Amino acid sequence: MHTDRRARARPRRAEVNIYCTLTPAYGRDYTARKAIVADLNAGKDFIFSKWGHADDGRLANLESLNDALGRGSEMKVNVRYKRLAAITVVTITRDVVLDEATGATVTEAVAS
After folding, report:
1. How far apart are CA 74 and CA 105, in angstroms?
2. First vs last Cα of the chain: how many Å apart?
């Protein structure tokens, strides 16, 4: 029987796939996903984009995205960077952002 190592490494959480995109606000741009994760954890603003959603075009940060999450749940969002030409998927959990590539919290992701 085949098992996924990542599924065993992290505790199971209720996952919410919101299918939205965050774009850096105030003219910011990024070249690396570590900087995106660090700024999300720092509470910097991003523009929430989801066609047809009531909050489309509004500013969002980690605190406002946490309001949409229940305790112990996580959501995956797309974040645009490199002059909006690239997209990375970031997992947002209650009060911390995980780097999708490594599954590490921002303090571990920035240090590596």
Report:
1. 13
2. 33
CA distance 50 to 97: 20
The domain of 72 spans: 12-111
* Pairing label, strands 73-81, 14-24: parallel
Asked, for residue 81, whether it belongs to a domain, the answer is: yes
- How far, in Å, CA of 26 to CA of 40, rounded? 14
Kindly state whether residue 5 falls inside one of the protein's structural domains.
Answer: no
Q: How many domains does the chain have?
A: 1
> pTM for this one?
0.68
- Asked, for residue 34, whether it belongs to a domain, the answer is yes
At residue 78, the 3 state secondary structure works out as strand
- 75 contacts 65 by C-beta, under 8 angstroms: yes
Predicted confidence (pLDDT) per residue in 54-99, tens digit: 778 899 988 888 776 665 577 888 999 999 999 998 888 765 666 6
